[in-house]
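@channel sequence for tomorrow's demo:
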Amino acid sequence: MKKSDKLKVAIEAAKVGANIALKYFDTDIEIEVKNDNSLVTIADKESEKEIEKYILSRYPKAKFVGEEFGGKINDDEFWIIDPIDGTRSFSRGVPEWCVMISVSKNKKIVLSVVYFPFKDMLYYAEKGIGAFLNKKRIMVSKVNDIRKSYLGFGSIKYFKNIDKLFKVIEQSGGAKSFESTYQSCLIAEGKMDINIDAYGKLWDLAPVKLLIEEAGGKITRFNGGEWSLEGSGAVMTNGILHDEVISILNS
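structure tokens (generated this afternoon):
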């Protein structure tokens, strides 16, 4: 795959952010609790600032929507930044965190990067080009029987009706809960088949949306409606199992 200049910048920006975060990882840093009960540290804030700084050095007119410093969602082009996805894990010294960057143009996600520094795993996608892991093209699984599926789920704390999640779990072949973003990436790789996340916000889901779709999968809201820039939560699958999962969740 020949990467566009913007994708190259996004990849380098993600690595810049990761290097900032790594300086603070597994150290005694102050942890703040935000209004939505999520966590933030100086590592999150400095990483987001340095990511923006790097992108602005290449695209001086770039606009941003970041988890820590916000921004305006509009119809034009803007960069979406999650400087440390998995801050709770990060703050406890658990290396299951990543840096996420994507670009929205006319309300469509056109490129995305998900970088796990400890695994040295770089996932990226560009609209109409495909999804990749470390230069290798990836595709979703072909599992067509939910009884053979491998399912992941986000924090059960945010599920309004936990019984519906359990219904899907009961019918699956097996279920585990890692960091939700990693599970989404595993769907794009074909190593998992379903991920159900009741919490994910714009910066959590925009990068994996494009990654999964370019790998042949599907992402919607819990009611089966189209994923959009506003709102939270999503159901992500290999596409083949999607309607069945949505049906169970809404039964």
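heads up for whoever presents: The longest strand covers residues 108-116.
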